[in-house]
Specification:
Strand content: 15-25%
Shape: elongated
Helix content: 25-40%
Bound molecules: flavin-adenine dinucleotide, NADP nicotinamide-adenine-dinucleotide phosphate, flavin mononucleotide
Number of strands: 42
Radius of gyration: 36 Å
Distance between the termini: 57 Å
Length: 1146
């Protein structure tokens, strides 16, 4: 057989058939299934994993038996040994870890051990929430009689295993119905009540379905209502229920908890959606007064997940029209076929007139028409069978089989016109399994004997009203227990975390919201989330923040279906969907009634999400990482609740965030049917409420020794493993003629293994604020404790109205006020509008108060003030002298002082035990040159501290910025100004390698740029030395302010002077391209490189793809410092542009 004839997946080629069907081939490990319409033959191997029970036996086929004993779980006949449970549990846990791509992992083996121990000790075990969700979905996937299984992954699970009473069951069922009904856009969901075990007693919903119509037996034996429910109706009546005697009276719920007698609850009418049946043409049909309920919620089945049995687990999907058709037409049900046919004028005496077929068809048309015109989800049997065929084929491909009960799956009308009719299907039972069970009343003896004679616990109107009220008021509380909202964040400078915390505040009004850092999450759990919110910034040049990198890569791999991490580098910019595609996702996701039945099933089909991206429009790839996450989640078919929000740090970031947060909260409440139960206004208020109250804080003196380990404290605060280095020496690299300083900072690592690094890595440094600013600020405080006393701030916690106690504030470790303001808190970044609103409260002067209030609205006034003055905290207190500021406000509200990164400028081999940095000392005057001079926190700290000073730091590994392994691979290094920093480590590394290993030097070209040949030509001598050693093969310098020469930048040289050399090195010789420094420069260099490619014969579009490919192949490397060159020029022009074009948030 040649490659082209190879069977795809489980398909079998014609020539193979005879052999495969031949029973004599004893080694056959699969069975074949033929489709008689298409002649396609497929293999089923999944049945090999089936439970060893068979619906049929050797002598006869039981295929049409309604309730074969093997599908009934009857506690009276069952005695399961611990060994049986262990076997089922092991198989299930294996399935779970296999699906999570963690088969045989340590976690898997530990879990198996834990489960086995638990079964050994207690005869049972508890499923984790994720296992429960997986089990529920798999049980549905395994259900042979269900035609709608293509949706199996899109199932909302309500975990109510914790409840103990029927009142709570009732509450949960109300929630279930509300969520499932969704104003007609029906959603599949399941509610799990406690499993069967001795401790729990038995929980059962006695009703066969949550919503069903009563059947009243009349004296003449006839029935008003639904005959199938006569027995259940009688039980309700015996328990005191008085039905109205109508044809469509919704039965009450009979709920049993802890093996006690059941309690009865009326289903609140507002939770029962019903559809009146009309015909598109026969107006008279409406007068027949037919109707049906919208949510088919089976409530009497038992689900077995790995040996744990759930006898009470109501679940629902939506109707296929013919099901209702049968409910109304079957002779044992409403039996309306004949009256209907008569109305149609058909001759009902003669069957061969096919009057039954005609009448049933028109009724089915009416049902579909009525549901559709009321926007209530329903499927016709053709669409349903076609989607099943798709599912069947998917399952054979993915799983090697799909159990199915042909007798049930073929629709009751027009069977042979549907594709399923022609398909051979095996029926077998897989665990997790749905079982039938005996009617609850047959297993239960009423303890309260009175109930039998009708003096029952009847729900009086008052009591009923109380329960209805309970249903709505407790719903929110109950939902909060059930629906989790997971807020993922990734951040570099802490803002995303701050926003994530605010988001948690608002979401906790209706959900159980928790915050998770992206790098602390196991991505394979994502499919079990219900509601995912993502708040993330973008870093580098469109890249994820460091703590978002693994998440992004894992999400990409998940989307590609890869088990192992792929070698393809994650690239936000290439992952972002074009705007049009994003918008269409959104439109699709919000179209009622189309989504829920959609066949497109991605792994995240059950996850609802929305993303907020933080970024700056000064960068070419604005919010690229947020968009990439948004695209990936959407591609995996998670449901987008709201279009991505974008927050531009140059324009109204906070405002945009608040706007998005309100909208996404409202959308989430809508989606989970909580809107009526949540006070949205109160919830929204939590977005602007600042939680600071001076009386809630106090200081306690602490032993001075508590402040000993500042590096350790910083590490805890920032969740980083920090070390410390000592300053060896500092050298100014600019000449005496220059007014600026760029310093070479040499640090001693004390051989700390935590500070091992490779050329290309960064050093993160936690700096100290300028002492003058700290002292100035302390001198302005109202209630400053002695500035060097070590204190612990305490917060007053109110557990409930009566209980109050003071707890140590977890934000800051015990330290002096001076240390807090020097080491831990950011006192130079202009405060957020929220902090300004607190300051407004503290201002004594009305004018100042008003001005601060205006600024705190975060409008253009705030933006202008912020970007013109860039005021630090001391300057604010000078601008608003009437502010009476307390120390606790600063300590509780100021953001943390963040680390600064430096591209390491030395090779660990060339300078063992040392780390060198090339630091441009930042100082600038505000207000366009007329304001005070500001000094950069970290660069001026490094420029000020004496030799021997300890510096708290850590290594940030930059795996994407590495020298190629093969030294003969050409490298082009482009870095103007301090952008030269990492390249010094490169050439030092090559010098070391050349001397120690006698390696051949390849092409290493350095393209540097600076202002003036006599001022800031950094490392000129070192570069000349490296050239002499043959390590640097070429060097070029662009001077931008050299007298009598035109202004030249690195990109000009690239494009105009060395274009052929670049093309040859990079394209012909597969070289690596490196750019380091300012983001605008990097974008300009990128453009120049494209033009080099085009000049050398490449089409423009191809040049884009070429660079994209270079990036994913790790041949185009960028090390971006941010907006460092012409900072105020760039930010001012972007802000002007944003305003002019009114780029509105959202
Ligand atoms: C991955 C990476 C690597 C880096 N490597 C290096 C390196 O090797 N060498 C190096 O010197 N730097 C490097 N940086 C930059 C470095 O991290 C710091 O941003 C820089 O040293 C300034 O920090 P600072 O604390 O001194 O200044 P800050 O106190 O942080 O002040 C800088 C801020 O002041 C404002 N500002 C600056 N200039 C102006 C102006 N003219 N007008 C108005 N506002 C202005 C801007 O908001 C700016 O963000 C790197 C950055 C990154 C992200
Ligand atoms: N986070 C920060 O804000 C931060 C961080 C580090 C440094 N800085 C600031 O950056 C400046 C010093 O940095 P530096 O020594 O690295 O660089 P620099 O000396 O200011 O600039 C290096 C060279 O790059 C040129 N240049 C400017 N814009 C360019 C562009 N778009 N493309 C290519 N080249 C361009 C400059 O030309 P021109 O003659 O046109 O300037 C100069 O020749 C200082 O002002 C420092 O305060 C700020
Ligand atoms: C070095 C650096 C690179 C950045 N790169 C981008 C970028 O490519 N795109 C973007 O939209 N924003 C970029 N930003 C802006 C940040 O995303 C923005 O400051 C954000 O508010 C930071 O949020 P965080 O504190 O949660 O990290 C960059 C900022 C820095 C300092």
């Amino acid at each position: 057989m040649d490659g082209s004839q190879k069977p795809r997946n489980n398909e079998i080629l014609p020539g193979e058939r005879a052999e495969l069907r031949n029973p004599s081939s004893s080694k056959q490990r699969f069975e074949t299934l033929k489709n008689w319409e298409t002649d396609k033959v497929q293999r089923d191997t999944l049945h090999l994993k089936a439970c060893p029970v068979n619906v049929c036996d050797r002598a006869k086929c039981n295929g049409s038996v309604m309730n074969p004993s093997q599908m009934i779980s009857d506690p009276r006949n069952e005695s399961r040994s611990p060994e049986d449970i262990v076997q089922l549990a092991t198989d299930f846990i294996d399935q779970y870890y296999e699906s999570a791509k963690r088969f045989k992992s340590e976690a898997h083996l530990n879990r198996l051990h834990e489960v086995k121990q638990s079964i050994k000790g207690q005869g049972t075990f508890t499923l984790t929430e994720h296992e429960l969700i997986f089990g529920a979905k798999t049980a549905w996937r395994n259900a042979p009689r269900c035609i709608g299984r293509i949706q199996w992954n899109k199932l909302q699970v309500f975990d109510c295993r914790h409840i103990t009473s029927t009142a709570e069951m009732f509450e949960a069922i109300c929630t279930h119905l509300k969520y499932a009904t969704n104003k007609g856009n029906i959603r599949s969901c399941i509610t799990f009540f406690p499993p069967r075990n001795e401790a729990n007693g038995e929980f059962r919903v006695w009703n066969p379905q949550l919503i069903r119509y009563a059947g009243y037996r009349q004296l003449d034996g006839s029935v008003i209502g639904d005959p199938v429910n006569v027995e259940f109706t009688q039980i309700c009546e015996r328990l005191g229920w008085v039905g109205k005697g109508g044809r469509f009276d919704v039965l009450p719920l009979l709920l049993q908890a802890n093996s006690k007698d059941p309690d009865m609850y009326e289903v609140p009418t507002n939770l029962v959606l019903e559809v009146d049946i009309k015909h598109p043409k026969f107006d008279w049909l409406e007068k027949m007064g037919l109707k049906w309920y919208a949510v088919p919620a089976v409530s009497n089945m038992l689900i077995d997940i790995g040996g744990i049995q759930f006898p009470a687990c109501p679940f629902n999907g939506w109707f296929m029209g013919t099901e209702i058709g049968r409910d109304l037409c079957d002779t044992t049900r409403y039996n309306i076929l004949e009256p209907l046919a008569k109305q149609m004028g058909l001759h009902t005496k003669n069957n061969s007139s096919l009057w039954k077929d005609k009448a049933v068809l028109e009724l089915n048309i009416s049902i579909l028409h009525s549901f559709q015109s009321n926007n209530v989800t329903i499927m016709d049997h053709h669409a349903a069978t076609e989607s099943f065929m798709k599912h069947f084929s998917n399952e054979l491909r993915l799983r090697g089989g799909c159990p199915g009960d042909w007798v049930w799956l073929v629709p009751p009308v027009s069977g042979s016109t549907t594709p399923i009719f022609h398909q051979e299907i095996f029926n077998y039972i897989l665990n997790p399994t749905c079982y039938y069970q005996p009617d609850a009343w047959k297993l239960h003896t009423l303890k309260n004997r009175d109930q039998k004679v009708g003096k029952t616990k009847k729900i009086h109107f008052k009591e009923l009203a109380r329960f209805v009220l309970l249903a709505s008021t407790m719903m929110t509380k109950a939902m909060a227990k059930r629906v989790k909202a997971t807020i993922f964040y990734a951040t570099e400078t802490g803002k995303s975390l701050t926003y994530a915390k605010i988001l948690r505040e608002i979401f906790n009004h209706a959900f159980d919201a928790k915050i998770v850092a992206m790098d602390e999450y196991d991505i394979w759990l994502l499919e079990y989330e219900s509601l995912v919110l993502v708040v993330t910034s973008t870093f580098g040049n469109g890249d994820p923040p460091e703590n978002g990198e693994t998440f992004a890569q894992a999400l990409q791999d998940m989307g590609n279906g890869d088990n192992e991490s792929s070698s393809k580098k994650f690239d936000s910019v290439n992952t972002v969907a074009p705007l049009q595609k994003r918008v269409s996702f959104h439109a699709k996701n919000t179209t009622a009634n189309q989504d829920n039945t959609s066949e497109e099933q991605g792994i995240l089909a059950n996850v609802k999400f929305s993303v907020f991206g933080l970024g700056s429009r000064a960068y070419p790839n604005f919010c690229a990482f947020g968009h990439a996450i948004d695209t990936m989640l959407g591609d995996m078919k998670a449901e987008r609740l709201l279009e991505i929000g974008e927050g531009d740090e140059l324009s109204g970031q906070e405002d945009s965030f608040r706007h998005w947060a309100q909208n996404v909260f409202s959308a989430a409440c809508d989606s989970f049917c909580l809107k009526e139960d949540v006070n949205i206004e109160i919830a929204n208020a939590s977005l602007s409420n600042t939680t600071y109250h001076p009386s809630n804080y106090r200081f306690k003196s602490v032993d001075i020794a508590a402040e000993e380990n500042i590096t350790g404290d910083l590490g805890k605060m920032h969740k980083k493993h920090l070390s410390s280095c000592r300053l060896i020496e500092r050298i100014n690299l600019q000449s005496a003629e220059s007014k600026r300083s760029t310093i070479l900072v040499k640090l001693d690592t004390n051989d700390s293994p935590l500070l091992d690094f490779e050329p290309g890595d960064h050093l993160g440094i936690y700096p100290c604020n300028q002492p003058e600013l700290v002292d100035g600020l302390i001198s302005k405080l109202e209630d400053a404790p002695a500035k060097d006393d070590v204190i612990q701030m305490e917060t007053l916690k109110r557990k409930n109205t009566h209980l109050e106690n003071w707890e140590a504030d977890v934000r800051l470790p015990p330290c002096s006020l001076r240390t807090a303001l020097t080491r831990f808190l950011d006192i130079t970044t202009p405060p957020t509008p929220q902090i300004l609103s607190l300051l407004a409260e503290c201002a004594q002067d009305e004018n100042e108060k008003t001005k601060l209030k205006v600024l705190s609205e975060g409008s253009f006034a705030y933006e202008d003030w912020k970007f013109q003055s860039f005021p630090n905290f001391l300057e604010i207190l000078e601008e608003f002298p009437s502010i009476k500021l307390s120390s606790s406000l600063l300590l509780s509200q100021l953001p943390f002082l963040q680390c600064r990164y430096y591209s390491i400028s030395s090779s660990p081999n060339y300078h063992p035990g040392q780390i060198h940095c090339t630091v441009s000392v930042v100082s600038y005057t505000t207000k366009g040159g007329s304001g005070p001079v500001h000094h950069g926190v970290c660069s001026s700290y490094l420029n000020r501290i004496p030799a021997g000073e300890k510096i708290s730091c850590f290594i940030r590994h930059a795996s994407g910025f590495r020298l190629p392994k093969d030294p003969s691979t050409p490298c082009l290094l482009i870095g103007p100004g301090t952008g030269i920093a990492p390249f010094r480590s490169f050439w030092q590394q090559r010098i070391y390698e050349t001397s120690s290993e006698a390696k051949v030097n390849g092409t290493m070209a350095l393209l540097f740029g600076c202002r003036h040949p006599l001022h800031d030509h950094l490392y000129k001598k070192e570069v000349e030395e490296a050239k002499k050693l043959g390590v640097i093969s070429h060097s070029y310098t662009a001077f931008s302010r050299s007298p009598h020469t035109p202004k030249t930048y690195v990109q000009h040289i690239l494009e105009n002077e060395i274009s052929d050399f670049v093309f040859d090195s990079i394209h012909n010789r597969n070289g690596h391209f490196y750019v380091c420094g300012d983001v605008t420069m990097a974008a300009d260099v990128n453009r120049a490189f494209k033009s080099v490619l085009v000049k050398n014969g490449m089409m423009k579009e191809d040049s884009d793809n070429y660079i994209r490919k270079m990036k994913s192949d790790n041949r185009y490397h960028e090390d971006i410092f941010g907006v460092t060159l012409r900072t105020s020029e760039v930010t001012d022009s972007v802000r002007k542009h944003v305003r002019k074009n009114s780029i509105k948030p959202l």
